[in-house]
Amino acid sequence: MNLVWDNLPFLLKGAYYTLLVTVISMFFGLIIGLVVAIARLKGNRLIRGIARVYVSIIRGTPLLVQIFIVYYGLVDYGITLGPLTAAYVALSINVGAYLSETFRGAIQSIPKGQTEAAYATGMTGWMTMRRIILPQAARVAIAPMGNTFIGMLKETALVSAITVTELLRSAQLLIAQYYVYMPFFLGIAAMYWIMSTVFSAILNAVEKQLSRVY
Amino acid sequence: MIQTTGLSKSFNGLEVLKSIDLRVAPKEIVVLLGPSGSGKSTLLRSLNGLEELDGGSLEVNGVRVEAGMPSKKKQAGFREIRRHTGMVFQQFNLYPHKTALGNVIESLMTVKKMKKAEAVQIGERLLDRVGLLVKKDEYPSRLSGGQQQRVAIARALAMEPAIMLFDEPTSALDPELVGEVLEVMRQLARDGMTMVIVTHEMKFARQVANRVVFMDGGVIVEEQEPEIFFQNPKSERSRKFINQLQEH
Fold first, then answer.
1. What is the ipTM score, two decimals?
2. Contact state of B85 with A120 under an 8 Å Cβ cutoff
3. pLDDT single digits (tens) A62-91
4. Measured between alpha carbons, how far is A35 from B115 in angstroms, rounded to an integer?
5. Beta-sheet strands, E only, within B120-199
6. Which residues of A touch B140 (CB under 8 A)?
7. In this complex, which of B93, B94, B107 lies closest to A122 when CB atoms are compared?
8. B224 — phi, psi (to 5°)?
């Protein structure tokens, strides 16, 4: 276990990348998810179709395959991305698909009367979405969104496969150096667990805050 | 003020409004009566385009919408109509994430692009008018049904509508809360608002309406002064309807 303590700064740096990849991918995933959800609900047939195919493909294929396609596959078409960029792109696209389903459900859960009330006072569809529907839908979506975020934190381990030195790869590098497995794996497991727990607590607090408003 | 000509509407092939011709004059108070499924709510909702007409035409406050218009033009027409009509719903439909005041001033700020301070002034005046200024910072979940409906009326009035549409405004209320909402509506009537009301409150209809429009099976069966309608209706169906009301 001393080996873990001695190499803690190195592991912490890995944890930092894990967090970085999680937060940045989540941020872009939120934007993608929102756009796709609205496209599926309000778009014309073509746009709805494209959005549906996107969600279906992403949810129906392994994340690791998606990461390889972005990092290795795109090179064949002259698009060379750094490992970190590829991780952002692949994970954002992936989590965006899942979040779009969350948002779509949340938007649909808002009673039709809300839209009618807004329309009846002269609001346009866009005003209604922005001012009336989305604020209420956000509250519905916050809990499943939190779960996606925590899930994301753990799935970032997959980008170790494209040489992003996040937490898992940091451990693998140390293992290659010292030839012992268990302390490092247990060490990073503990670090993942701590991060998940802390985020859970933060999200719970946010949820409570939101539900207290009305 | 309102004129529909041959207005028709179907749901999945079932014709719920069959060529309705309805006229409402300025300052007139028209009550739509009829058994459930008679089309009275659908007619009211098509007056501001919440139900889109399938046939005929509609003119509200000088804005004309025809069934044959391209969709974009129809939508624009309805949006224009909605800016000049207020609507009150059976289920109130207040925005739960906004306070009473927030509900009233929302469209002043978004649709009319008013500054917040100015909107608040109007909002407070209207909440005062429905007797709820003290509740302006409460969220709808903390208000009784009657209070929520009065806020909803204030919200509709904020846009300075020329016409108010009421879709069974007291049907979702506990009996003891009906009176306070009807009182606000009576006040509006006294102030000369043009109103079209779907309601089951017969006493209210009798006292406040200038004209009763009785519907059944998607057509207007009888239009009558309330006193005549309730005491000596012309058509057989109206008579049956009134007799049924009196049985309980």
1. 0.92
2. yes
3. 999 999 999 999 999 999 999 999 999 999
4. 30
5. 163-167, 194-198
6. 214
7. B107
8. -155, 155
